[in-house]
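Usage

Read records sequentially. Each one opens with the input sequence:
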Amino acid sequence: MDNTKETEVPSAAPSGRRASGRAELPQPDKDDLRPSTIAFDILVCFVAALLVSASLYYFSNYNNFAPGGVTGIASILATLTESKFGEMTLNMSLFMLLLNIPIFILAAIFVSRKTGIMLIVYLIFQSLLLMLFKALHTRYGLPYYSAFSPDEIPGIPENCYDEGNNLVFASIGVGVISGLGFSLMIRRFGASGGTYAISALIKRFHPEHNIAWLAFAMDASVVVLAFFVYRSGANAVISTLSNIFISDIVVDFMLQGLRSGYKFEIVTDKAEELSSELMQKLGRGVTTLHAEGMYTRTDKALLICIVRKRQVGAFLKILKRYRATFSYSCRVNEVYGKFDDYRKRPPHGGVPAERTAPEGTEKPQ
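and closes with the structure output:
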């Protein structure tokens, strides 16, 4: 009689969980800690903080509207407590530190140590620069852009108000300049403030969730609060909406627009001549694929070429000279890179046998 007993092998613990059944906390990403990289990171933090703090001081803080995100909440809290805790700009600097630093510490623990630390450095730069601008205003009369006259809001310095100043220009100014600062931080670290850091934390624990609602909810709360807090009523709401919207447009443009292009796909039976002219005159590479016309059952070529926006007109002029050619285009958000062997060209200037692209060839992401 066989007394052998089957031994049950315990199944492996599910991914992301310990054997005890507890959820395993996500580990932070590995960081590039080379001194030259860290020095450049600190420089990026300073430049971004200079842009954002200058936009807040010069356009936002004294015009009764708030920027978006956690900074907007800090601005509203500073306005509400100005009578008890002191001047608005100094008060706002402290609220920014109190609201953002705990978020950045969590980002350093769970997302990336260096990113969390650099966000704290960026925030400290931003708060110190706001205090510096205020000190320069107090001591040397450094002006800011005021859309309100001293008659409307007592205490507005004469050198800060002009008849042409209005809230529209102020909201545009803070949106454009702060958007430039945000884009520097996002491109370098993937985050630029409390809202982005909260989003990164949520994605770290729940990568399957769509968190686009988070930024919308944060900005919407700032807009609603601005209506009740600031004395300019609907003007505060419209100005807050405008600067949030413009800032987002600037960030999107800086992250994608500068490297965008157009992809053309061309069906033609003049592949050699057309691709050669495109490469020689535009300096762009062309990729050829085999195609077959299903109506005529004839062999054709499908050419793929990506050009910059400024080259679209010249591209279309070349294309019009070729009959029996069909083409369509679409926009690509990111264009980068080039082939390593672009210098291998045939002596006669024609198309290389291996379809090597010329210098500047780019491909979409």
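Summary fields computed downstream for this record:
- The first helix runs from residue 35 to 60.
- Residues 260-364 form a domain with the Alpha-Beta Plaits fold (CATH 3.30.70.120).
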